[in-house]
Amino acid sequence: MPPRTGRHAVWPDRIRPEVIAAVQECGIEHPWAHQALAAEHALDGDSVVVATGTASGKSLAYLVPVLSTLLEGSRAPNGRGATALYLSPTKALAADQCRSVKELSQSLGTAVRPAVYDGDTPYEEREWVRQYANYVLTNPDMLHRGILPSHPRWSSFLKSLKYVVVDECHTYRGVFGSHVAQVLRRLRRVCARYGSSPVFLLASATAAEPAVAARRLTGLPVVEVADDASPRGELVFALWEPPLTELHGERGAPVRRTATAETADLLTDLTAQGVRSVAFVRSRRGAELISVIAQEKLAEVDRSLVRRVAAYRGGYLPEERRALERALHSGELLGLAATTALELGVDVSGLDAVVICGYPGTRASLWQQAGRAGRSGQGALAVLVARDDPLDTFLVHHPKALFDRPVESTVLDPDNPYVLAPHLCAAASELPLTEEDLELFGPACADVLPQLEAAKLLRRRTRAWHWTRRERAADLTDIRGGGGRPVQIVEEGTGRLLGTVDEAAAHSTVHEGAVHLHQGRTYLVRSLDLADSVALVEQADPPYSTVARDTTAVSVLETDTEIPWGAGRLCHGSVEVTNQVVSFLRRRLITGEVLGETKLDLPPRTLRTRAVWWTVTEDQLDEARIGPEILGGSLHAAEHASIGMLPLFATCDRWDIGGVSVPLHPDTLLPTVFVYDGHPGGAGFAERAFHTARAWLTATREAIASCECDAGCPSCIQSPKCGNGNDPLHKRGAVRLLTTLLREAPEPPEERARKGAAAEPDDRPGDSASASGHGAGGLTHGEAGDRGGG
Q1: Looking at residue 211, what is its pLDDT?
Q2: What percent of the chain has pLDDT over 70?
Q3: Residue 758 burial by CB count (10 A; 0-12/13-18/19+): exposed, middle or buried?
Q4: How many Å is the maximal CA-CA distance in the chain?
Q5: Residue 320: enclosing H or E segment and its boundaries?
Q6: Helix, strand, or coil (residue 141)
Q7: Which residues form the Helicase ATP-binding domain (predicted)?
Q8: Is 642 helix (H, G, I), strand (E, B) or coil?
Q9: Could you tell me the residue ranges of all domains in the chain?
Q10: For residues 361 and 391, is the Cβ–Cβ distance under 8 A?
Q11: What is the mean pLDDT of residues 465-489?
Q12: Which of 181, 287, 509, 565 is a Cys-bridge partner for 281, taking CB atoms 3.0 to 4.6 Å apart?
């Protein structure tokens, strides 16, 4: 990708000269054009979103007007005539930003007083932050649980609040994004109570329609600044497909070398050559595994290099995270295997290479991660290592889908009643909820409020609704998880707390017999106590990793929309999903070879959510030459592959969706394939699938047809989490079935309209978790998204 030259501008003349001087002391003579424009909007009182590439100076674009305003406010009698609130999705990013603000504002003396306020802030410091800090850095969780419920203690800060900075706002998507949207509406309402109306300054990676997403997030009109004027060095981007091995997987399918093993090799080679590199990995376990393998291989070359490679992920203790961040900044660390806790966060400068282990789910995330290399305008290397799944394989063979398409837009739905209800309760406990407030929270309030009254959570007195319970309303929901309290992971011998895992993910990640990694050490789960939310583990060194398998059944509650596809139907509506983790596989490390399967006895979980489903008729099956003996395998194969491909069209990731296929479903009385949102009440992904169904299923058909295997493999129709052991699957039947279905698919109106603009649909990655059970019409196959926690 060729280099790009930068375009300079001048700061608006309303910026205080002391702030401009402080920026120049940091070596920045003139701003880029997009920075100056964003600062101009901020000073005019317009909420603005800056959506430009990584390392384009977004932080400075909002910091300069904020610091200038804080400086003005420092003249007030209490020294705090203006305040600003900064929100980041991760603690690491807030800590890093606090360092940057302190460095930048050094010459401004005590006029700017930044402070981090999060779960790690010692209690003795919290009172000082509330009384004296004028730039408070926190996260949406702390705003939801800590600041808003105790707003009277923050009254002097909120009264003077001029700016709210929402950093990395493209990460607020799906259910988490919908929760954050409601938290921001609660913040605006409490500010109004104290007479302030802050301007929102949002920073986003490049995204489609950033102003639209920012408006849905904040509920306010937002101006967009998306023309990136910063320079960029040349970037060499490699698409890397691991080689086939001699091994055979389930049903004799060919097996590729794992993306984890390839990434570890690349990180080892780069570190041995003194190249500063980060490998981004989807899972905590993957990050730990890659760092361990790289350290072992480096020990054979030069023992002094071993301590220069480490792993970084969420779930570490605060002091462990800070120490790793410092080592990376100083150059003491050469190679780092990291989860997205780092992608969002730390300003890692001076990297020479980025290795991305598996497609990260969206093109926005891909460019965000690749952009970490070559930060000071020098050339850099980015490598995308494909996992053995349908989406990654499709992308390395269809590079145009990565390089020639715009990034996707962000999907969030603040009107989801499961999201809205707890926030209406929290809002009512903060200040009684009036009729005038309802417009702020959206049209769905009219349906949700009577339900909250009936449940005796809210009571209406005269003109307002009041919270009736003794417990804290903010504890009704965990804005990152699927609800329920997190499961604590405790070392059996010592009682030491190693970390936590979301309740929703506990069944599939810390079941009895699961392998759990923490800081490069391997633990085996001895027991999972669901009643007390505790998993007991002991240190061990098994030569395998574990992956859970589950079974799923779906029943249709209500069909909202349906479109004829020839004789078949494409539908969207509400469903109830029953999912049960039934067993786990042990897979040999590095090769991925299956060593065995162990049954589990865990209770089923039910979920009411939204789904898209399609049916086919007897005539369509005849036309596709699909007899009863291959019907189950054809549907099952099409379902696996379609779940794998959906992230290219909706901003979901692999944990957000699941699916089921049934040769005869009791509700539709036809062969049916379902794909559903893995969150209560839905997250907008199934709806997106419904609206882009023709393009989505066309890509699915192409992914299966173009795979070079004979009868199906993990690159096309096999799923690692399939509770049926990937049986039955019929590759050629799936291609014929989709061909017949698509022949009669109507062109959606939005696609016809879009053809003029030659644009393509929305996207995000995913593979799926799979499952099986026995429904009324025979075999039910499901992939249940084992949703990752926050």
Answers
A1: 94
A2: 91
A3: exposed
A4: 83
A5: helix 318-330
A6: helix
A7: 39-225
A8: helix
A9: 17-225, 235-404, 425-475, 485-542, 547-744
A10: no
A11: 86
A12: 287
**What 8-state DSSP symbol labels residue 152?**
G
Report in angstroms the alpha-carbon separations of 650 from 25, 145, 646, 782: 44, 30, 6, 20
Please, are residues 658 and 679 in contact by the beta-carbon 8 Å criterion? no
Q: Name which CATH class applies to 17-225.
A: alpha beta
State the Cα–Cα distance between residues 70 and 105, nearest whole angstrom. Answer: 11
DSSP state of 482: S
Structure confidence at residue 514 as a pLDDT band (50, 70, 90): very high
CB 497 within 8 A of CB 488: yes
Split at pLDDT 50, 70, 90, the class of 415 is confident
Question: In this structure, is the dihedral angle defined by the CA atoms of residues 608, 419, 548 and 660, taken in order, positive or negative?
Answer: positive
H/E segment holding residue 465 = strand 464-467
Torsional class of 113: left (φ above 0), alpha (ψ -120 to 50), beta (otherwise)? beta
Beta carbons within 8 Å of 510's beta carbon, 6+ residues apart: 487, 489, 501, 516, 525, 528, 535, 537
Tokens of 362: 């969206």
Rounded distance between C-alpha atoms, residue 398 and residue 389, angstroms = 14
pLDDT digits (tens, 9 = 90+) for 536-576: 999 998 989 898 988 899 999 999 999 999 999 999 999 99
| E-assigned strand segments in 663-725 | 672-677
User: pLDDT: is 239 or 680 the higher one?
Assistant: 239
C-alpha Rg value of the chain to the nearest Å: 26
Confidence of residue 770 (pLDDT cuts 50, 70, 90): very low
Q: Region 311-323: what's the mean pLDDT? A: 74
In 3D, which of 701, 696, 691 has the Cα closest to residue 752? 691
**Least confident among 73-77, 252-256, 499-503, 710-714:** 499-503
Residue 778 has pLDDT above 70, yes or no: no
Q: Which residues contact 328 (CB under 8 A, 6 or more apart)?
A: 312, 336, 346, 348
Report which secondary-structure segment, H or E, holds 694. helix 693-705
Residue 488: name the closest of 510, 508, 457, 468 by CA: 510
| Bridge partner residues of 382 (DSSP) | 237, 354
Q: How many residues does the chain have?
A: 790
Question: Within 10 Å of residue 259's Cβ, how many Cβ atoms?
Answer: 28
How far apart are the C-alpha atoms of 649 and 267, rounded to whole Å?
Answer: 31
Asked if the domains at 17-225 and 235-404 fall in one CATH topology, the answer is: yes
**Bridge partners for 572 per DSSP:** 561, 612
Q: Give the tokens for residue 685.
A: 């992904």
CA-nearest of 789, 657, 639 to 728 is 639
Q: Which two tokens stand for residue 208?
A: 């489609």
Q: Is the pLDDT of residue 723 over 80?
A: no
257 neighbors 247 (Cβ within 8 angstroms): no
Fold of 235-404: Rossmann fold (3.40.50)
- Residue 496 phi/psi, 5-degree rounding, is -75, 135
**Cα–Cα dist 471/162, whole Å:** 32
**Would you state the pLDDT for residue 233?**
87
